Amino acid sequence: MLYNFFMKKVIFPPRHIVWSKAEIDVADPFQRRWLLQQTLLYGTADDIRRLDLDEVAQQINYLHLPLYIERLWRSFLKIRYP
Predict the structure, then answer these.
(1) For every one of its 82 residues, what pLDDT tens digit does the chain have, with 9 covering 90 and above?
(2) Of 9, 35, 42, 78, which has the maximum CB count within 10 A?
(3) pTM score, two decimals?
(4) Could you tell me which of 71, 30, 36 has the C-alpha nearest to residue 53?
(5) Burial class for 26, CB neighbours closer than 10 Å (0-12, 13-18, 19+)
């Protein structure tokens, strides 16, 4: 799960991550991927700590991230999942 403490189907993400919507349906793959992308772009260290790194590894190819952020995550995931 993207956020371990979000056990509901519909969540209310922090405003510093998502400011264009009040709620996200994490059961919808598109919205879930978008929330992951937003978290990698705008999340705090606490937000990043809450991510499921297995999910990040599975979804990294489908995210639209700036090259420097994508490279950072790919390097980290390569070390974590050789």
Answers:
(1) 444 444 558 877 888 998 888 888 888 899 999 999 999 999 999 999 999 999 999 999 999 999 999 999 999 999 988 8
(2) 35
(3) 0.82
(4) 36
(5) buried
What's the total number of domains in the chain?
Answer: 1
**Domain that residue 18 falls in:** 10-80
Residue 4 belongs to a domain: no
Please list, in sequence order, all residues whose beta carbon lies within 8 angstroms of the beta carbon of residue 11, skipping any fewer than 6 positions away.
Answer: 3, 23, 24, 26
